[in-house]
Specification:
The structure is a single chain. By secondary structure, the protein is an alpha/beta fold. The chain has helices at 13-24, 42-50, 64-73, 89-94, 96-116, 151-169, 203-211, 239-254, 275-286, 310-316, 324-339; strands at residues 4-8, 28-32, 55-57, 79-82, 121-127, 174-180, 182-184, 218-221, 233-234, 236-238, 263-267, 273-274, 292-295. The chain has a seven-stranded parallel sheet with strand order 3-2-1-4-5-6-11, with helices on both faces. Helix 3 runs parallel beside helix 5 and helix 9 (275-286) packs across helix 11. The radius of gyration is 19 Å and the shape is globular. Bound molecules: UDP-4-deoxy-4-formamido-beta-L-arabinopyranose (WQD). Residues 87, 89, 127, 129, 182, 201-203, 206, 218-221, 232, 234, 275, 298, 301 line the site of UDP-4-deoxy-4-formamido-beta-L-arabinopyranose (WQD).
Length: 341
């Protein structure tokens, strides 16, 4: 019998790509999603790519009674990957309690069920945001947390602490936290991708929407950083590469290869790229001219952050493989697909 993995937030951006990679290697998947920031049609995209359908349960993880009932029905789960969370930095500043309430309650409910129902393996969707502006670059997993810039970032820090404390007294529950740098791009089929609601906060969806004519121009937030071209530097990682790291993490736990509990890995390319370099690369690879202007820095942005990927490469045995050109092209193909361009 195939192993069964629960993916919370499985109709979301990173979740849906991970469901595809899990199913591609033969896992069965059940998704829990309340569709607060995703659409049910994503399930069709996943089915078209993989030739199989994921099981789907629509409810909110903060509803403990429903979650308990779910675990009573799906007794044979082999692992849980937890993506479901609110993720808008700006909104979290406006509505901190919404973020603490949702992101932390759902995590605690899930962990409690996993302990009670003896589900042994847990992967958590963490973020490079926990590092703030690191003292040293590239940043390793050993770097200490910096005071969070937003309630969103704080929920990721607190979540990692909750996981640490929980597995410390529940050694039968093994956890891996994956700290994502900046996930971008879409599946090469253009059947699934990122579906931002309203005005995108993130750089690449804003770029593709500008090229598609949905936005008038891109605002580049700051050109006075202490970087070669003055714009801020990030580590942009292809979402399919990122998804594959979750499959590797699940296999690692199933095969008892973990060396500590929890384990923590950076997921990035190891390469820093500036905002202006992304703009140029997008123009080169798509042939689209992008209208942009330089504006003031965005509050809360750090100057430069990119991953030391040694631990993920050597210990986890995972490496980002897809080129930045293919990645930007996949983002553009996805945008064109949803806009019928
Ligand atoms: C990247 C760069 C912007 C938009 C955030 C979260 C992080 C993670 C990913 C996930 C920055 C610049 C952006 C625009 C711009 N969270 N930019 N014009 O801020 O590195 O990370 O998303 O769920 O936790 O903090 O990503 O894509 O917003 O910005 O110039 O219109 O692009 O200033 O330098 P960020 P981003």
């Amino acid at each position: 019998m195939n192993k069964l993995i629960l993916v919370t937030g499985g109709t979301g951006y990173i979740g849906s790509h991970t469901v595809v990679e899990l199913m591609n290697v033969g896992f069965d998947v059940v998704i829990i999603d309340n569709l607060s920031n995703s659409e049910k049609s994503v399930l069709d995209g996943i089915a078209e790519i993989t030739g199989r359908r994921a099981y789907f349960e629509q409810f909110d993880l903060c509803d403990k009674e429903k979650l308990d009932n779910f675990f009573k029905v799906y007794k044979k789960l082999d692992a849980v990957i937890h993506f479901a969370a609110y993720k808008s930095v700006g909104e979290s500043v406006e509505k901190p309690l919404k973020y603490y309430q949702n992101n932390l309650t759902s995590l605690m409910n899930l962990l409690e069920c996993m302990v009670n129902f003896n589900i042994p393996h847990f992967v958590f969707s963490s973020s490079a945001t926990v590092y703030g502006q690191p003292d040293q670059l590239p940043v390793t997993e050993k770097a200490s947390f910096k005071p969070a810039d937003s309630p969103y970032g704080n929920t990721k820090q607190i979540a990692e602490e909750i996981i640490y404390d929980t597995v410390s007294v529940n050694p039968n529950l093994q956890a891996i936290s994956l700290r994502y740098f900046n996930p971008i791009g879409a599946h090469s089929s253009a059947l699934i991708g990122e579906l931002p609601t309203g005005v995108p906060d993130n750089l690449v969806p804003f770029i593709t929407q500008t090229a598609a004519g949905v936005r008038t121009e891109l605002k580049v937030f700051g050109d006075d950083y202490n970087t070669p071209d003055g714009s801020a530097i990030r580590d942009y990682i292809n979402v399919v590469d990122l998804a594959k790291a979750h499959v590797v993490s699940i296999k690692r736990m199933i095969e008892n290869k973990t060396k500590s509990n929890p384990e923590v890995f950076n997921l990035g390319t190891g390469k820093g790229t500036s905002v202006l370099e992304i703009v140029k690369a997008f123009e080169n690879v798509t042939g689209e001219k992008l209208k942009y202007k330089i504006v003031d820095r965005r509050e809360g942005d750090v100057e430069s952050v990119y991953a030391d990927t040694k631990l993920a490469n050597e210990e986890l045995g995972w490496k980002a493989e897809i080129s930045s050109e293919d990645t930007l092209l996949s983002a553009w193909n996805w945008e064109k697909n949803i806009r019928d361009i």
